[in-house]
Amino acid sequence: MSDLLVLVGGAWLIVAPFLFGYGDTEAADAARVNDLTVGGTLVLLAALSLALTARTQSRGRQRADR
User: Fold this and answer.
1) What is the total count of domains within the chain?
2) Non-local CB neighbours of 28 within 8 Å, separated by 6+ positions
3) Minimal CA–CA distance to 39: which of 2, 3, 8, 64?
4) Partner of 62 at 20 to 30 A CA spacing, among 20, 35, 39, 43?
5) CA of 10: how far to CAs of 3, 13, 28, 38, 42, in Å?
6) What does the pLDDT look like over 22-34, one tens digit per residue?
7) Measured at the alpha carbon of residue 8, what is the angle toward residues 53 and 25, in degrees to the nearest 5?
8) Residue 39: per-residue pLDDT
9) Is the pLDDT at 66 greater than 80, yes or no?
């Protein structure tokens, strides 16, 4: 469940600069780059965690069926 929240938070960080139009200042550019970098990292790590969790659970079910 927490992985999904991290994934949604990361997606929000990626979308926010485009929804709110941070402006054209140097500080706004830095904030945009920061949001995209951190958001992308969060999405990537959350997706990896979700995939590994699903794989582990799938293997556990396969062993239980034997």
Assistant:
1) 1
2) 22
3) 8
4) 43
5) 10, 5, 18, 7, 5
6) 999 999 999 999 9
7) 135
8) 98
9) no
Look up the domain containing 6 and give its range: 2-65
Tokens for 8, please give them: 């949604």
Q: What does the pLDDT look like over 10-55, one tens digit per residue?
A: 999 999 999 999 999 999 999 999 999 999 999 999 999 999 999 9
Give me 6's structure tokens: 């991290």
